[in-house]
Amino acid sequence: MGAQAQHRPRRVRRDARRPRREVRRGRDRGRRLRRVLLVHGAGRDRARTPRRPGLRRVHLGAGHHGQDRGAGGGRPRPAAHRHRPSARVADRRSPRRACRGRERPDPRAGGPVIAAGAYERVAIVTGGGQGLGRAYAARLAGAGARVAVVDVDGDAARSAAEAIAADAGADRVSAHEADVTDEDQVGAFVGAVAERWGRVDALVNNAGGALLPSAPFDSFSRADWTRVLEVNLTGQWLCATAVVPHMRAAGHGKIVNVSSTMVSKGLPVGLAPYVAAKAGVVGLTRALARELGPDGIRVNAIAPGYIPVETRKTVHTPQAAQALRERMKAEQCLPVVGVPDDLCGAVEFLCSPASDFITGQIVNVDGGWAHG
Ligand SMILES: NC(=O)c1ccc[n+]([C@@H]2O[C@H](COP(=O)([O-])OP(=O)(O)OC[C@H]3O[C@@H](n4cnc5c(N)ncnc54)[C@H](O)[C@@H]3O)[C@@H](O)[C@H]2O)c1
User: Could you list the residue ranges forming a coiled coil in this record (predicted)?
Assistant: First the structure.
C-alpha cells in the first residue's frame, strides 16, 4: 500500500502545464466573459432586456421574425460558432464540387424559407392543379409565399392559379403546364419560375398517384409499371435535379417529397407499382437529405393517409373507395376520414424555418394508421 502510494505519479496542476502568461490571459477572459450578457435577437429582445451596470450587450443576430434576420436562419449564432467544414470534410467533397474553388456555404446561412406573411419566398408545387397539390399551393400562398402551380393538365393548373390569385393577388402565383417526367419541360418551368421571381426556395414534389385501376401485381404490363414509377419517383428526382442548382446558389432550400402511408404496410392489395414507387420516394428522400445537407437544403417527405379527393376516379370503383375509406378510418388511431387540409400543416411546416433542423424524415400524416 505504502509502496503503491510512493509510486503514484504526482498530480500536476492543469494550469502548470501552460506558460504563466497564457494562464493569466485565460483567467482574465473568463472574468470578462462573466460580465458579458448575451442577447439573442435584436430589437424585440433588446427592449425587454434589463439594463444592468457592468453588463455588456452582445447581439448575436436578428430575431426570429421580420426581414432583418441574420445569417443564422432563425438560430442566431456568433460567426465563430457556426459550422465550418473541417479540412477532412472538405477533402471528401466530390471533385465536381471541390473544383468549383469555393467553400461549401454554411447550411444555416440562407435564412428562412417561408415565414408567415413576412417573406416573399418562392415555392413550386407539382401536381398543383387539383386534389391535394391544389390545397398545398393555396396554403403556401396564404402563408406568404409566391407559388408556381405545375400540372400536366394545363387547364387545372390555370384554374388553381386563378383561384389562388383571387385571394393572394395575381403577382403571387403562376401556372405552368408540364409533365414532371419530361426533363425539358421540368427545366423549362423551373427556369421560368427562377426568371420571374429570381429564386426557388421550396419544391413540393406532389405530382403523382396510383394512376391505374387496382389489379394483381403480375397483371400489370411493363409499360404500366414503368409509367407509375416514372411519374411517382423519377419525376420527383427530375424536379429535384432542376431546382437544386438554384437552392445551392442561395445556400438554402426545402424539398418536400410526397410518399404514401401505404408503403409501411403494402396495402391496399392491388397497387404494387404505386407502393413500390412511393417506397422509392422514401429512399430518394433520405439519400438527397444526406447529399444536400451541406448545401443547406432540407429534404423531407410526407406520407399521407387515405384522403378522398373528388378528382380521383381511376384507381378504385366508388364501392371500393367507400370500403377503403371505412377500413382506414377503423384502423387509424383517430377514427376520422382525413381531408386535404389535414396535410397542409405538415407541408407548410416542412417548407418553413420552423423545420430548419429537420431533414431526411418521412412524416406520416395518416391519423395514426401506419404506426398506431
Ligand atoms: N389522396 C390520397 O389519399 C393520397 C394518399 C397518399 C399519397 N397521395 C399522393 O399525393 C399526391 C396527390 O394526390 P391526389 O390524391 O391529390 O391526386 P390527384 O390525382 O387528385 O392529383 C394529382 C395531380 O398530379 C397531376 N399529375 C399527374 N401526373 C403528372 C405528371 N406526369 N406531371 C405533372 N402533373 C401530373 C394530375 O394532373 C393531378 O392534378 C400524389 O403523389 C399521390 O400519390 C395521395
Answer: none
In this structure, the answer to whether residues 75 and 174 fall within a common structural domain is: no
Other Cβ atoms within 10 Å of 338 Cβ, number: 21
CB 183: neighbour CB atoms within 10 A?
13
Our count of domains for the chain comes to: 2
* Residues spanned by the domain of 33: 14-85
Q: Which among 125, 152, 203, 339 is the best mutation to test ligand 1's pocket, defined by most ligand atoms within 8 Å of the CB?
A: 152
Alpha-carbon dihedral sign for residues 230, 305, 311, 301:
negative
Q: Is residue 112 part of a domain?
A: yes
Query: Is 123 within the bounds of a domain?
Result: yes
Q: Which of 119, 136, 274, 306 is catalytic?
A: 274
136 among known catalytic residues: no
Residue 131: HSE in the Cβ half-sphere, 13 Å Cα cutoff = 20
- Kindly report, residue by residue over 245-299, the tens digit of the pLDDT: 999 999 999 999 999 999 999 998 999 999 999 999 999 999 999 999 999 999 9
- Per-residue pLDDT reduced to its tens digit, 104-118: 556 656 555 555 444
Q: Is the pLDDT of residue 24 over 50?
A: no
Let me know whether 21 and 138 are in one domain: no
Q: What is the pTM of this model?
A: 0.75
Q: Is residue 9 part of a domain?
A: no
Asked whether residue 132 falls in the same domain as residue 218, the answer is: yes
Residue whose CB lies within 8 A of the most ligand 1 atoms, among 206, 227, 275, 342, for a mutation test? 206
